[in-house]
Structure formats: C-alpha cells, structure tokens
C-alpha cells in the first residue's frame, strides 16, 4: 500500500499496533534536560529506557552470527506494516521511538550496512519523507544491525544541530553555484555541512569526500561516519560526522564510572539518548566533552581532513 504522507502511515500503523502506540504516547512523558558544552554548542539529554535494546546491542561478528536478524521479514512483528519505497526498500514504523515520527527504512535484501551506491537513495528519501530528517549510522558508528542495511528517519527540528549551525562560526571549504561545503569551527564534535539543489552533483561530491575520509581513517570497508540528510524547499542539507571511536571507554566500565552510551547520528545531532536513569542523572558537560572527544574524529586528523578537502576542491 502507498500512503499519502508520513503522518498517514504512522496513524495507520499505530491504530493497528497497540504496543507501539503505547511507546509513542510515552514520548510525551520522557524527561529531557539541556547541557551547555561550550558557548554556542548545546546538547539535549533524553531519558529513554526503551532504547536500551539499541544502546546495549552487541555488534561484534560472533554476536551477530548467533542472533536472528530483527530487520528481516521473518523476524518482524506481524503487526508491522510496510510502506514500499522504490524496488529496494521497505519503510517501517520504528517501535522503539526517539521522535514523534520515527521510521526505519530497510533494504529488502539482507546485506551489510554499507553506504556505497545508496547516497542517491538517501537524498530521495529525504525528499519523499516530508517533515523528517533521514540518517545513516555506519556499521561501526552506532548501527545496532550492522548486518542488514537500513536508514532511519525522525521528526525534523528536534535535534539542536541546525539551530547551533545558524549561530556558530564555521569555515567555508568550497562554494560554487548552489553547492556549499562548510566545516564546524571550535566545536566539540567535528562535522561538515553540505548544501545543494542538485542531487546528482551532491551525491558525487559526497562520494568523493567519503573516499578521502576512508583513506585518512585507513578503513578497508567504508569511512566511519554518521550522516544526516534533510530536504527543504528546493535544496538538500547534509551533516557529515567523521568518527573516532565506536563507543567511549566508559561503555566497558562497571559501577559509577560506567556509561551505557553508544553515540550515533541523533546523538551527534545534539539529542543525546540515555537508556539508563543513572547515566541521565550523572552526565555533565565535562563527561560529555570527554565522550565526544573520543567518538569524533581526533583534532589532528580533522585538521588534516579539512586540508585534504580544500586541496581536492581547489583542483576542480
């Protein structure tokens, strides 16, 4: 069935799935609080215990091999509706939501989480799913199902990133026609912003950037990233977060030193998800700065990456 809008699909799904509806209704009662990392850079903590399945997911190869894939049709709940997208994807309502509108877009085929050849799909999804931001978590960057390709999409304007971007100093790396590439400046998490009204050009540029990053990170399979994509009016805006560690060292610690945090796209977008109340209660600005310093691209590599991009684009 083809649905008229995200709202229509969500309404139809929740009318038929009481368990998921209860979780979405519960979002109205989740606790949040704001933390000022530094001037102009703020994070919002969300206490969301139902997300512990994602935060605590074992993503090592032996663990993946032992469990059934929960994104494959055979393991999905029978109540879960399908909204087809093109010939390769099923759009699903995420039953463990962060946002009032939260979708998972899964590949029909059980194939690994690799972005190559799918950037155009992501841009078209952002255009199709009005009112949402589409995001991609790399296999080593917060994806809880690295064995089955998927995007997610959530309500736009709930992550502090775009507001931060409008008011924070940034560095322009390249500007030509409608294409704009800028880099964050003096922020705890390092990221690029790409903007364009031409999806094919934007896809090609992003692919080139990812190739440069993959070389820098010395990764065999793909660059380690989180990626956010939104379509407004006639243009797309992407936020690309080059990654450092998959999870902070505190993830493996027990007791009061431990933090069950597995940062992914939403967290880097400024909405930090806490699955445990003890983490939500104790997190402060110094701890979050430490977590982000481990999980973002290290400062030296970030500077080298920007220099490589500036040199690359100057030759075009």
Report on this model:
The structure is a single chain. By secondary structure, the protein is α+β, with helices and mostly antiparallel strands. The chain has one domain (6-314): ATP adenylyltransferase (HIT family, subunit A, 2-Layer Sandwich), CATH 3.30.428.70. The protein has eleven helices and 13 strands. The strands form two sheets. The protein has a ten-stranded antiparallel β-sheet with strand order 3-4-5-7-6-11-12-10-9-8. Strands 1-2-13 form a three-stranded mixed β-sheet. α5 packs across α7 (199-217). It is globular and about 55 Å long. The model has no long low-confidence stretch (mean pLDDT 93).
In summary, what is this structure?
33% of the residues lie in helices and 25% in strands. With 316 residues, it is an alpha+beta fold.
Give me the secondary-structure category.
Answer: alpha+beta
Average residue pLDDT = 93
Number of strands: 13
Total number of helices: 11
* Helix percent band: 25-40%
* CATH class (first level) name: Alpha Beta
Architecture (CATH level 2) name: 2-Layer Sandwich
User: How many structural domains are formed by the residues?
Assistant: 1
State the distance separating the first and last CA atoms: 45 Å
Give the topology string: H per helix, E per strand.
HHEEHHEEEHEEHEEEHEEHEHHH
Q: Which runs of at least 5 residues are low in confidence (pLDDT < 50)? A: none
The Rg value, from CA coordinates, equals 19 Å
Instruction: Profile the largest sheet.
Output: 10 strands, antiparallel
Strand content: 25-35%
Shape: globular
CATH superfamily: ATP adenylyltransferase
Give the strand order of the largest sheet, numbering strands 1, 2, ... along the chain: 3-4-5-7-6-11-12-10-9-8
Determine the CATH topology. Answer: HIT family, subunit A
